[in-house]
Amino acid sequence: METAVSQLSLPTYIDSSMLSTWRACRRKFFWSHVNSLYPSGKSVHLIAGGAFAAGMEAARKLAFAPNRDNRPTHDDLLEAAFRAFLVEWGDYESPEDSPKSFSNTFEALAWYLLKYPPAEDVVQPFIRSNGEPTVEYTFAIPVTEGPKHPETGDPFLFVGRFDLLGRYGDLNCIQDEKTTSGLGFNWMHQWRLRGQFMGYLWACQQTGYPEVSTAVIRGIAIMKTDYKDAIVIEQYPQFLVERWYKLLLHDLHQIVTAYKCMQHEI
Fold first, then answer.
1. What percent of the chain has pLDDT over 70?
2. How many helices (H) and strands (E) would you count in the chain?
3. Is residue 68 within 8 Å of 78, Cβ to Cβ?
4. pLDDT for 5
5. Alpha helices, DSSP H only, in the chain?
6. What is the separation, in whole angstroms, between the first and last Cα of the chain?
7. What is the largest CA-CA distance in the chain?
8. DSSP-assigned beta bridge partners for residue 79
9. Of 65, 92, 128, 163, whose CB count within 10 A is highest?
């Protein structure tokens, strides 16, 4: 028991996945994020999704590269995407019965790039002052109104990353691509009150993009013999974003209280 207790360490950051775990099962939260105990093995869904995202990031950065004389061809985008995809996939071997194999997932990426060429897509990234596009938008924001971390005394950081920050028609938006095995009714309607996206919108509002209230969610169904896609547009009124933020503060207070109780019990 002493060995397990000595490994207790409360992270100095919080993200949407951790919040979801906390709200679903507090015991699981502490086992996973405080005791650092995770199931053995790797999830094919996480591996395939991560590799797909890495490939899309590389393709988009090439498509919007500053000071480029010629627009890259589809083959140029595929080459850039494949290099990033290969690194992210690593030496993982997917289950034989999974449609999300190395080759099939990359074929889905190639199909998606052909259907939605980055430079012609209806969703376009912002271009920063240095010429770089706002793709794979990453943030780490101190939650200054929340409790301080019990060990460091600093505010917790709310961290995250999504695929693109830009414009959809006249709307400022975030875009996130989700690889999946199917695009049924449940998939299409699960985003209406999605805390993940409210958190992303709150983060955008703290980092100089106050008018972002729309999320464009694109699903890519990777099946054994076919690929399909679907788009969901969700708008989150400001009162929902503010309610999400108040719940974040409430959760952080509860996490800290529970952690301190654990320390007293040791």
1. 96
2. 9, 7
3. no
4. 44
5. 2-6, 16-24, 26-29, 44-63, 74-89, 102-115, 185-189, 195-206, 238-265
6. 10
7. 65
8. none
9. 163
